[in-house]
C-alpha cells in the first residue's frame, strides 16, 4: 500500500467516525463538528485526485497541509486522529532518491544516517561507498548525486526564504519603535574593605531582589540597554521578558526582519503555541519551517531537511515566541526538552531567543540571559503616535499630556505599547479619548474583555463581562481601602473580597461567581490584573484601572459613606471617576446618561469634590 493509499484509508475511517457522531444529535450538531466533516471530505477528494494522477503529489501536498493543520487543531466531538505527521516526514521530506534502499545500504555498512543534515548524509554515503557491493554502490551513488544537488540549491532556497520573511514583516517595519531593556550581569566584586558603604548597600539590595545563587567574590549589577538589539548583539541566548502588551512579539519579528539581511545568520521565528504534546523540539521546528505558508508557517521543506546541518554550522538563530502560550498538556516535559536542545546547540554557535510574559516565567530556561522590556519613554510615545497618526498626532499628544489634579496619568498608561495602540485606535475612531477618564477606561475594559472572550483557555470558564466588571469593582474597592494605591495584595486576601454573587441588574436576581480562582484567571487573561509567577499576589495592570473599578463600586455605597471619601489620601481620583461615570458628557444636572434621575445627595457631594479639585 502506498503512502497516499494509507492516508486515504485513514481519512475515510475518521470521516465515518465523525459522521456517526453527527447522527447522535437530534438537533443541529456543533459547528466545529460540521466543519471537521467538511474538511475531511475535501481531503478525501484531493487524495483521490492525486491517486488518479489528476493532480501532482506536490500540488496535493500544498493543498492538503492547511486542511490537515485545521483538522489536527480541533478537539472535543470534532477530534480526529489525522495529523500533520501523516503527510510529512519519511521519504516525502527526504532529498534522497530511494531512501529505504539507502537505509539498507547504510545498515549494511554498519553506519547510521544522520537526520536533517545533508552534508552529514553526503559524507556518510561517500564513506560507505568503498564497502558496498556493485548493486548497492549504484543506489548510493544516485543518492550522493541527489544530495550534492540539494546542497548546491540551498543558497537559492535561503535567499527565497529571506525574501519571504522580509515580505511578511515589511508592512510594520517602518513603524517600529526600538524598545529599551534592562538586565543584570555578574561581575567580580570589590573586597568588603574596598567597597564603599553605598556600593555594599546596592549589592545587598540586588542579591535580595534577584534571589539568585551568586558565587563568592561576585556581585550583580544592573545593565541598561538602549535597544533590544544591543542585548542580542551582546548575549548569545536570551529570554526576553515583559508584561502583556509590552512588545515582545513585535520586537522578535522586527529582529527577524533585520537579521534576514545578514548572510551569516538565518533567523527562524516560531510560535511555541504550536509546539504540541508528542512532538520533539526538532519535529516542532521542522514542522514550522516546512509547513504550508497558507497555514501561517514558512513553507521551506528544503531548508527544514537540513535543520541539524544549520545548527551544527552555528548559522541558525531560532526565535521561540511566547513560552507562556505553549499548550498545557506535557508543558514541563517540553520546557525541559527545549532547555536541553538549546544547551546542545548553543556551544556550536547557534543563537536562541525565547519570549515569555514576566508573570509566567519561573526559571524554566535558567542559564539564558534575561532581558526585561522597559516602559516607553515620552520620546518613544511621541514617535509611536507620530508614526501611526501623521496628520493628527499632535492632538493626541496634547490629550495625553494635558494636566489635571494628577498630572499626565493617561501618558503613564500609554507607556505600554499595546495600550497605546488601543488609545490610538479609539482616538482614530472618535477623534478623542472620551469625555473623561472613566469613558476611556469603559472603552478599554470592553475591548480587553471582548478580545479575551475568544481565547481558547478562557472559553470554558467565561463569565459575562458585566459579572466580571462588578466583581473586579469590589476587589478594587477593597484593595484600595487596605493597600497602597496600585500596590500588590496577597492572593489569599483578594479571594476573601470576591463575593459569591453580584447584582448586575436590579430587575433580576444576582449572578453567581462559581470560582474565585477562575475569576482571577479571567481578569489576568484580559490584562486587567497581574499576578506573580507563583500566583502569590494580585495587583491591577495599572493603577488607573484599579481606580476605575473602585469608582464603579463607590457608586453603590450609601451617601453617608461617600461624602468624606474625597478627603482620604488616594481617593480623590476615585471620586472623580465616580462622578465621570455617573454624569458622563450629559449637561442635564439631575439626569444620568441612561436617563435615570441622579440621587438627590449627589449634586452637593460633587460640589464638595469640585471645590477640592479647584483649590490651589
The radius of gyration over CA amounts to: 30 Å
Overall pLDDT, averaged?
78
Amount of helix: 40-55%
Strand tally, please?
Answer: 12
**Given the helix and strand composition, which structural class is it?**
alpha/beta
Question: Keywords, please?
Answer:
single chain; 616 residues; alpha/beta; seven-stranded mixed beta sheet; three-stranded antiparallel beta sheet; globular
Q: Secondary-structure map with pairings?
A:
Blueprint: H1 3-23, H2 31-51, H3 57-73, H4 99-108, H5 118-128, H6 134-169, E1 181-188, H7 197-210, E2 218-225, H8 228-234, E3 237-242, H9 248-259, E4 266-271, H10 281-290, H11 301-304, H12 307-313, E5 316-321, H13 331-345, E6 351-357, E7 369-373, H14 378-388, H15 393-401, H16 409-413, H17 417-430, H18 437-452, H19 465-482, E8 489-490, H20 491-497, E9 501-502, E10 511-512, H21 516-525, E11 529-531, E12 537-540, H22 543-554, H23 559-562, H24 572-583, H25 602-614
Parallel strand pairs: 3-6, 3-7, 4-5, 5-6
Antiparallel strand pairs: 1-2, 1-7, 8-12, 9-10, 11-12
Helix pairs in contact: 1-2, 2-3, 4-6, 5-6, 14-15, 19-22, 22-24
Amino acid at each position: 500500500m502506498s503512502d497516499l493509499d494509507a492516508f486515504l484509508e485513514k481519512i475515510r475511517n475518521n470521516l465515518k467516525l465523525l459522521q456517526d457522531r453527527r447522527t447522535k444529535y437530534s438537533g443541529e450538531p456543533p459547528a466545529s463538528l460540521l466543519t471537521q466533516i467538511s474538511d475531511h471530505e475535501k481531503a478525501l477528494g484531493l487524495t483521490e485526485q492525486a491517486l488518479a494522477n489528476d493532480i501532482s503529489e506536490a500540488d496535493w501536498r500544498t493543498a492538503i497541509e492547511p486542511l490537515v493543520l485545521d483538522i489536527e487543531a480541533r478537539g472535543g466531538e470534532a477530534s480526529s486522529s489525522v495529523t500533520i505527521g501523516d503527510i510529512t516526514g519519511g521519504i516525502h521530506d527526504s532529498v534522497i532518491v530511494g531512501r529505504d534502499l539507502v537505509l539498507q545500504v547504510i545498515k549494511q555498512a554498519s553506519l547510521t544516517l544522520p537526520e536533517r543534515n545533508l552534508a552529514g548524509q553526503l559524507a556518510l554515503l561517500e564513506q560507505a561507498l568503498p564497502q558496498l557491493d556493485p548493486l548497492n554502490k549504484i543506489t548510493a551513488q544516485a543518492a550522493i548525486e541527489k544530495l550534492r544537488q540539494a546542497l548546491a540549491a540551498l543558497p537559492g532556497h535561503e535567499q527565497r526564504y529571506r525574501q519571504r520573511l522580509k515580505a511578511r514583516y515589511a508592512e510594520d517595519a517602518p513603524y517600529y519603535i526600538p524598545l529599551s531593556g534592562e538586565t543584570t550581569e555578574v561581575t567580580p566584586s570589590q573586597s568588603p574593605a574596598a567597597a564603599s558603604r553605598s556600593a555594599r548597600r546596592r549589592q545587598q539590595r540586588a542579591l535580595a531582589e534577584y534571589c539568585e545563587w551568586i558565587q563568592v567574590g561576585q556581585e550583580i549589577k544592573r545593565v541598561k540597554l538602549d535597544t533590544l538589539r544591543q542585548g542580542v548583539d551582546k548575549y548569545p541566548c536570551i529570554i526576553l521578558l515583559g508584561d502583556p502588551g509590552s512588545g515582545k512579539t513585535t520586537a522578535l519579528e522586527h529582529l527577524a526582519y533585520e537579521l534576514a539581511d545578514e548572510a551569516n545568520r538565518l533567523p527562524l521565528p516560531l510560535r511555541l503555541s504550536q509546539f504540541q504534546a508528542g512532538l520533539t523540539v526538532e519535529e516542532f521546528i521542522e514542522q514550522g519551517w516546512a509547513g504550508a505558508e497558507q497555514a501561517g508557517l514558512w513553507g521551506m521543506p528544503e531548508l527544514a531537511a537540513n535543520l541539524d546541518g544549520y545548527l551544527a554550522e552555528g548559522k541558525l538563530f531560532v526565535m521561540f515566541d511566547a513560552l507562556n502560550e505553549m499548550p498545557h498538556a506535557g508543558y514541563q516535559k517540553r520546557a525541559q526538552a527545549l532547555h536541553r536542545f538549546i544547551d546542545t546547540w548553543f556551544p556550536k554557535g547557534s543563537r536562541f531567543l525565547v519570549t515569555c510574559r514576566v508573570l509566567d516565567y519561573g526559571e524554566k530556561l535558567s542559564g539564558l540571559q534575561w532581558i526585561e522590556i522597559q516602559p516607553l519613554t515620552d520620546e518613544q510615545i511621541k514617535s509611536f503616535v507620530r508614526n501611526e497618526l501623521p496628520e493628527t498626532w499632535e492632538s493626541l499628544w496634547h490629550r495625553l499630556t494635558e494636566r489635571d489634579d494628577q498630572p499626565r496619568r493617561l501618558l503613564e498608561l500609554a507607556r505600554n505599547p499595546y495600550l497605546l495602540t488601543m488609545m490610538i485606535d479609539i482616538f482614530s475612531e472618535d477623534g478623542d479619548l472620551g469625555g473623561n477618564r472613566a469613558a476611556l477606561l469603559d472603552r478599554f475594559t470592553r475591548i480587553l474583555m471582548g478580545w479575551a472572550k475568544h481565547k481558547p483557555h478562557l472559553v470554558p470558564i467565561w463569565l459575562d463581562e458585566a459579572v466580571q466588571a462588578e466583581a473586579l469593582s469590589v476587589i478594587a474597592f477593597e484593595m484600595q481601602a487596605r493597600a497602597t494605591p496600585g500596590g500588590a495584595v496577597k492572593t489569599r486576601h483578594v479571594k476573601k473580597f470576591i463575593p459569591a454573587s453580584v447584582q448586575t441588574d436590579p430587575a433580576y436576581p444576582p449572578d453567581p461567581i462559581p470560582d474565585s480562582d477562575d475569576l482571577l484567571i479571567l481578569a489576568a487573561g484580559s490584562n486587567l490584573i497581574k499576578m506573580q509567577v507563583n500566583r502569590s499576589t494580585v495587583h491591577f495592570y495599572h493603577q488607573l484601572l484599579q481606580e476605575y473599578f473602585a469608582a464603579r463600586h463607590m457608586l453603590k455605597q450609601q451617601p453617608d459613606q461617600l461624602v468624606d471619601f474625597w478627603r482620604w489620601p488616594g481617593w480623590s481620583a476615585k471620586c472623580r471617576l465616580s462622578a465621570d461615570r455617573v454624569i458622563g458628557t450629559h449637561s442635564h444636572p439631575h439626569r444620568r446618561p441612561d436617563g435615570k434621575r441622579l440621587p438627590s445627595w449627589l449634586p452637593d457631594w460633587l460640589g464638595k469634590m469640585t471645590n477640592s479639585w479647584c483649590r490651589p
